[in-house]
């Protein structure tokens, strides 16, 4: 297209910076007034009560960076950024962390997230559903590793129906 590679890089950086400045305006966790509706929508998805969000990470593949390249190699051997998302029942993103190299584990991103710190101090009025890589906390529910009873099986099934991939 006749555009120098440096110019493309500068434009991508400028657009990325502009989007990052808008993130807090568009990505917000439900307020106290919205929580009841969020819980109701999640319950209708899979009979899991008191759910206010689902959390997961996804790897966004990138070209190998020139500096500290090894940090960006994920468990599948590809260069990536590990992005953590919390979503609601409508698949709207309510919390987002986009700063970790691909080698960083999901649970570490979670522990270093501002949301984790906030919820450890001020417990939310509800729970966030996560997969087994995340810690089990009073406000984070994970599936049973092995469902040995009918009630554990029902719980795991409801968890799975309620927390589809983001």
Mean of the pLDDT scores?
A: 90
Question: Which overall shape is indicated by the principal axes computed on the Cα atoms?
Answer: globular
Low-pLDDT runs of 5+ residues are none
The largest pleated sheet is described as: 5 strands, mixed
Strand content: 15-25%
What is the H/E order? HHEEEHHEEH
Give a count of the beta strands, DSSP E runs of length 2 or more. Answer: 5
Taking all Cα atoms into account, the compactness measure Rg is 18 Å
Helix content: 25-40%
Class by alpha and beta content: alpha/beta
Strand order of the largest sheet: 3-2-1-4-5
Distance between the termini: 35 Å
The number of helices is: 5
Explain what this protein looks like in three dimensions.
The protein is an alpha/beta fold and 166 residues long. Helix content is 39%, strand content 20%. It has a five-stranded mixed sheet. It is built from five helices and five strands, in the order H-H-E-E-E-H-H-E-E-H. It is globular, with a radius of gyration of 18 Å. Keywords: Cytoplasm, Hydrolase, Metal-binding, Nuclease, Nucleus. It comes from Pogonophryne albipinna. It holds the Pfam family DDE_Tnp_4.
Structural key phrases:
166 residues, five-stranded mixed sheet, alpha/beta, 5 helices
């Amino acid at each position: 297209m006749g555009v120098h590679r440096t110019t493309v890089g500068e434009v991508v950086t400028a657009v990325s910076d502009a989007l990052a400045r808008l993130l807090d305006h568009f990505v917000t966790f439900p307020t106290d007034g919205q929580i009841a509706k969020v819980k109701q929508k999640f319950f209708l998805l899979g009979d899991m009560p008191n759910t206010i969000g689902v959390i997961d990470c996804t790897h966004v593949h990138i070209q190998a960076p020139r500096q500290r390249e090894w940090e960006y190699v994920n468990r599948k051997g590809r260069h990536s950024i590990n992005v953590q998302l919390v979503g609601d029942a409508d698949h709207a993103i309510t919390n987002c962390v986009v700063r970790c190299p691909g080698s960083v584990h999901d649970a570490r991103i979670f522990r270093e997230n501002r949301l984790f710190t906030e919820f450890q101090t001020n417990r939310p009025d509800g729970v966030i559903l996560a997969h087994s890589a995340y810690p089990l906390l009073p406000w984070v529910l994970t599936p049973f590793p092995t469902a040995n009873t009918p009630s554990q099986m029902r719980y795991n099934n409801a968890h799975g129906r309620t927390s589809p991939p983001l």
